[in-house]
C-alpha cells in the first residue's frame, strides 16, 4: 500500500493470508505484477519487475497515488465506527 501511495509500481510475492488477494488485485488493476512465493523463480522475478516498469503501469500508479493521497482513510474509519 505504501508503494502505491507513493506512485510506485508493485511486485507482490505473497506467502501468507490476504497477500494473495492484494497480489491478484495489483495484477488485475495493472499496477504491477504478482507471483506466489511457492512458484517464484529467478526468471519469473525478472519478468515481474520488467512488467512493472512499463510507462502505462507507472502512469496508472501515479493516478492511484493521487487518489490515495486525497482520501482521509483515518477519518472515514472513525466515522464508520
Brief rundown of the structure:
The protein is mainly alpha-helical and 81 residues long.
Q: How would you portray this structure in words?
A:
The chain is mostly helical and about 80 residues long. The protein contains five helices and two strands, in the order αβαβααα. It has helices at about 1-5, 20-30, 40-50, 55-70, 75-80; strands spanning about 10, 30-35. Strands 1-2 form a two-stranded parallel ribbon.
Low-pLDDT runs of 5+ residues are none
Give a quick account of the main beta sheet: strands, pairing sense, barrel closure. 2 strands, parallel
Oligomer: single chain
- What's the number of helices? 5
Order of helices and strands: HEHEHHH
Radius of gyration: 14 Å
Which structural class should the secondary elements be placed in? mainly alpha
Strand content: 5-15%
What gross morphology would you assign?
Answer: flat
Distance N terminus to C terminus?
22 Å
- Helix percent reads 55-70%
DSSP summary, beta strand count: 2
What is the overall pLDDT average?
A: 94
- Strand sequence of the main sheet, in spatial order? 1-2
